[in-house]
Write a structure and sequence with these properties.
The chain is an alpha+beta fold. The chain contains nine helices and six strands; from the N terminus they run H-H-H-E-E-E-H-H-H-H-H-E-E-H-E. Strand 4 and strand 5 form a beta hairpin.
Length: 196
Amino acid sequence: KHAPSSSSERSKAIRYMCYGFILAVLLHAAITLTVYHIYVADGLPAIFGGCQIVFQANGQYRHSEIGLAMPLETVLFIPEFEMPTEEGRSILPTLIPRGDAIHNLSRVALLVNSLKSWRSDSLRWATQDRLHQPYRQAIFPAMGKIFDAALAAGASGVFLSGSGSTILALCSDRSHQVGQAMLKAGTKEGLKAKII
């Protein structure tokens, strides 16, 4: 990359560097000072925006942005009931079957490729999961039916957001229809929810 050519560009670059440095210091302090550091790491994408990969290296949390090649819309199905993170994690198995690990690793690679190469048709497969959603469905039985409704209405992909209970659908279009279909499926299962 070339160095900034004008004083205004240099000033902007310095502001961004300072902003990044301040964020890094604050995040390091928050992670160091709280026993719930994993929740801070979960919040990194929200702080930096866009689609972020968060990972830990040399004892520090780092992030890398995935440049989106496609204009995606998100639909959030937010039920009135909550799924506490502690409860959601407590039902996960300690050991992961090799086939499930391979399944999810391939989906991660497919997800990054889909987002960077404008392959929205691959997102249906890229958002599939075997590591946590099947287990969390025990405390959210309607999840699968809401997934099915979203995909049938035109969502490119759908998944449980974090540990739940929010469900997130990715859409290249038809986001309104997808939201209404998810709401209808949830209502049939006796769930009160809102769509964003």
